[in-house]
Amino acid sequence: MASSSSYFLLAAVALAALFAVGSCGTELTLTIGKDSSSTKLSLITNVAISEVSVKPKGATDFSDDLKESPANTFTLDSKEPIKGPISFRFAAKAGGYRVVDDVIPADFKAGAVYKTGKQV
After folding, report:
1. Domains of the chain in sequence order
2. Which of 23, 34, 37, 106 can bridge 84 by disulfide, Cβ–Cβ 3.0-4.6 Å?
3. Is the whole model's pTM more than 0.85, yes or no?
4. What does the DSSP 8-state code read for residue 38?
């Protein structure tokens, strides 16, 4: 016959496991599109997000929302060369915005993948 402390421990472990599973998400990654250049930044996300904007080095605020086309691909076209590092902002499903500072380095290359550290 198990003691009451064993039942308590089992219940605590079960609750901890449920909490861990419930708080899991997928880490958002950004892939630099193959059509990116010094004046065009194409970002491909691994999960569906919305209201994406960026802030290149030296900018005082985030850009207007980037155009999404095709799905999960967001593009910034600029007349001037885009300077990094670049910060990234997106709308979270739970509400509000998430910001990842300097996630895209100054020397970004087409095809590179960058981890944001943000779970969505």
Report:
1. 27-119 (2.60.40.760)
2. 106
3. no
4. S
